[in-house]
């Protein structure tokens, strides 16, 4: 795209890309500051993750009471959550309610994908191009694309020959798909795969679960929220809306402050039992910090979880396969499940160990491994995402002197607090690499915090910069990367391959994508702002 050649259909102050949790809030905040804002959304509706991931069984692993916006008392008062852990449809309905209540749709162009955004240095503006052929010029560019939006699919050869249906979970058809009585294969047994498998197992004719790595899993306690429970939940809102922003991972609970080694073993066991009974990610996020830092502490907790899982598996020969042994508890994302392990009691559910015997290719009728072929009507790829960099990389974002964001991140994944990047003035990102996100934060908490920081920063720059341009210095960015790595490398997580490190995408530079410690991060962001955006150049 040449900036000169492009006919700009419209000038505005800010462009927001994406209409999920972050995008909707960014649109609302920036508009509230009097900016003329245009938002683009590739989908036909709002919701982001909750628009795209409509696979059977999709639901949050965060409690509804903290998986929401905090900025509006009216929204908090008017929306009535129905389940402790809402399913996809309920969360999507909530985001539609917010969009309607705040009258956001009028500024969102749906079914419109942003394809490119180029910085015009002379004009100090971004020129944003969409797949509809339109271009918009803006001062502030705010992509809110989510960390997990770009599906990752294994490159099994022969897909064109396969005569059945292949679906990635993040591209599930809106009209759904009838799986009753069908022979279905699910590739992937992490957070998504587990939800799909436990949900469809009872209706399909035969289910083949292609498992490469067994995962730890915690049984979810998910009661319906009745009126009395909802009132109790509402009574906790004033406290929660502060706690989530201070906590380690953006929840209404926090780490156990005690030193693991100073707590007697029996007391540790009692603590683990009590956390287990919560039936939530509290088992991870309220545990002792040493669990993710110290091999011995991690082994004890991993043994505890395996013991709990083993008690649920009826067929002993399956236990050895379903119990995770290749990584420690909490070093990869731990799913919550509702009857996952129990579905393997069903005679028509088959576990295929594709670590021992990897999938090699599609056939015209299914999948084949090195030693066997599987006849399948539907193949579900629960194979995850090119996280953090994937979706931003899909847009041709070029900063000063034509610098390509995608190419920069192919060399090294680096940002200043996940919010900006040197060479890309006035580009503000949410859920980008090196800010806390899905891995280590309850997303709505961190997205609201990041949007607030961005909006406050834009407000400041508008009032103080002649050209109204801001970008981080290379030194500040390098300093943040170094600090981020120091925190990451102190944990066992940095030693465990997973999407958290980008290890699931061949050739991706390895770095922990999420910053660890949402509360500390917020403090660091606030410090920068209070010091007049120290580390950033405003011109
Ligand atoms: P993921 O964690 O990246 O898991 C992908 C799965 O696909 C893994 O089991 C992986 O095996 C498997 N896989 C990939 N390539 C394969 C191949 N060639 N052969 C066999 N298996 C293969 O993706 P995800 O489950 O979609 O979850 C991603 C993240 O989304 C989660 O960590 C979470 O943050 C979020 N999420 C949240 C919720 C929720 O809140 N309830 C639900 C779903 C997802 P390996 O492990 O061996 O690589």
Automatic annotation (TrEMBL):
* GO MF terms, alphabetically ordered: flavin adenine dinucleotide binding; N,N-dimethylaniline monooxygenase activity; NADP binding
Give the required cofactors. FAD
- Report the protein name in the record: Acetone monooxygenase
Entry keywords, A to Z: FAD, Flavoprotein, Monooxygenase, NADP, Oxidoreductase
Entry's InterPro entries? FAD-binding_Monooxygenases, FAD/NAD-bd_sf, Flavin_mOase-like
- Residues of the signal peptide: none
- State the similarity comment: Belongs to the FAD-binding monooxygenase family.
């Amino acid at each position: 795209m040449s900036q000169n050649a492009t006919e700009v259909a419209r000038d505005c102050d800010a462009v927001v890309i994406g209409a999920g949790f972050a995008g909707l809030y960014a649109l609302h905040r920036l508009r509230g500051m009097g900016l003329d804002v245009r938002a683009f959304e590739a989908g036909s509706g709002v919701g982001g993750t909750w628009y795209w991931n409509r696979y059977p069984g999709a639901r949050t692993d965060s409690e509804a009471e903290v998986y929401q916006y905090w900025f509006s008392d009216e929204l908090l008062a008017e929306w009535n959550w129905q389940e402790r852990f809402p399913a996809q449809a309920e969360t999507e309905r909530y985001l539609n309610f917010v969009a309607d209540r705040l009258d956001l749709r009028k500024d969102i162009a749906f079914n419109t994908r942003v394809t490119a955004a180029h910085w015009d240095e002379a004009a100090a503006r971004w020129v944003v191009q969409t797949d509809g052929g339109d271009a918009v010029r803006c001062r502030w560019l705010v992509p809110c694309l989510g960390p997990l939006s770009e599906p990752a699919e294994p490159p099994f050869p022969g897909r064109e020959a396969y005569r059945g249906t292949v679906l990635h979970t993040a591209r599930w058809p809106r009209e759904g798909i009838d799986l009753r009585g069908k022979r279905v294969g699910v590739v992937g047994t992490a957070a998504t795969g587990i939800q799909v498998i436990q949900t469809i197992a009872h209706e399909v004719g035969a289910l083949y679960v292609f498992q490469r790595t067994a995962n730890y899993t915690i049984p979810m306690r998910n009661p319906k929220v009745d009126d009395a429970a909802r009132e109790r939940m509402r009574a906790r809102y004033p406290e929660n809306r502060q706690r989530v922003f201070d906590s380690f991972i953006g929840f209404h609970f926090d780490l156990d402050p005690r030193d693991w080694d100073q707590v007697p073993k029996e007391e540790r066991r009692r603590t683990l039992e009590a956390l287990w009974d919560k039936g939530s990610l509290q088992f991870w996020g309220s545990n002792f910090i040493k669990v993710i830092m110290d091999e011995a502490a991690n082994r004890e907790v991993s043994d505890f979880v395996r013991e709990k899982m083993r008690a649920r598996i009826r067929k002993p020969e399956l236990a050895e396969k379903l119990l995770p042994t290749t990584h420690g508890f909490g070093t990869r994302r731990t799913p919550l499940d509702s009857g996952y392990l129990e579905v393997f009691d069903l005679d028509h559910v088959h576990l295929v160990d594709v670590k021992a015997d990897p999938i090699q290719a599609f056939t015209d009728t299914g999948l084949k491994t090195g030693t066997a072929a599987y006849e399948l009507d539907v193949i579900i790829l629960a194979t995850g995402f090119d996280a953090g960099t994937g979706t931003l990389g899909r847009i041709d974002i070029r900063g000063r002197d034509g610098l390509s964001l995608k190419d920069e991140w192919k060399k090294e994944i680096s940002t200043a607090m996940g919010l900006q990047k040197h060479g890309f003035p006035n580009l503000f990102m949410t859920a980008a690499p090196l800010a806390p996100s899905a891995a280590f934060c309850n997303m709505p908490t961190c997205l609201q915090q990041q949007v607030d920081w961005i909006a406050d920063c834009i407000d400041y720059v508008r009032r103080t910069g002649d050209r109204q341009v801001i970008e981080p210095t290379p030194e500040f960015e390098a300093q943040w990367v170094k600090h981020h790595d120091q925190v990451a490398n102190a944990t066992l997580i940095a030693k465990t391959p997973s999407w958290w490190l980008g290890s699931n995408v061949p050739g991706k530079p390895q770095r922990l994508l999420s910053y660890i410690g949402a509360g500390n991060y917020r403090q660091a962001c606030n410090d920068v702002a209070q010091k007049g955006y120290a580390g950033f150049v405003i011109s």
